[in-house]
Amino acid sequence: MVEIHPTAIVSPKAKLGTDVKVGPFTIIHDDVEVGDGSIIDSHVVLYDGARLGNRVRIYQGAAVANTPQDLKFGNEVSYFYIGDETQIREFVTLHRGTHATGKSSIGKNCLLMAYTHVAHDCSLGDNIILANGVQIGGHCEIDNQVIVGGLAGIHQFTKIGAHAMIGTNSKVTADVPPFMMVQGVPARFEGINKVGLRRRGFTPEQLEAIKEAYRILYLSGMLFSHAKEKIAKDLGHHEVVKNILDFIAKATRGIVRK
Hints:
Elements: E1 3-4, E2 9-10, E3 15-16, E4 21-22, E5 27-28, E6 33-34, E7 39-40, E8 45-46, E9 50-52, E10 57-58, E11 63-66, E12 79-82, E13 87-88, E14 93-95, E15 103-106, E16 111-112, E17 117-118, E18 123-124, E19 129-130, E20 135-136, E21 141-142, E22 147-148, E23 153-154, E24 159-160, E25 165-166, E26 171-172, E27 180-183, E28 188-192, H1 194-199, H2 204-219, H3 224-235, H4 239-250
Parallel strand pairs: 1-4, 2-5, 3-6, 4-7, 5-8, 6-9, 7-10, 8-11, 9-12, 10-13, 11-14, 12-15, 13-16, 14-17, 15-18, 16-19, 17-20, 18-21, 19-22, 20-23, 21-24, 22-25, 23-26, 25-27
Antiparallel strand pairs: 27-28
């Protein structure tokens, strides 16, 4: 059964799944799809192109799939996808894609705290936490299990690898390889995300391989190209190290420095 508050404005063209609840003064536009069991609180706006999975919770004042803040945007059809069981807290703003990719997306089981912003053409993975006030520029790619501290700013076109942790108030202008912690203005390498990796079941052998790879990269004094060769030679048989090397090979903004 769908429950829609009498003060909400819901287009008859919108597609709402079973057991959806829509709160007071919320507006849902024509080209919107909401999955089963989702809850849309008060004063939310779901614009054309919003695609919500199952059991998504949108808190008051959030805006989903609004038009991009990109002067090149020509009102083309595009989307914003939100995965199952993701929570979007108060006054979050999520902008749909442009002609570049046609979409923005957030994966499953994510938590976006109050006042966060995800710009056009971004791709966020599963189990991500963005703390209050995080601002993410356009075309960013954030892999699974990343945590971003409050008020951090992520520059457009930046990539962040899986299981990384970004410190509060950080300014991220370079790509962040997986498994590491960064902090500062600009953000710098602070070590590996040891506690988070342990909690997620990484073995002591994997942790040691990750730690040694980053020691070679950041602390050996070797040229960057030579450090990568040594990591591949000495540690390349570890899958976690392959992930690091693959990420570095695809980095487009350089990677964070020590």
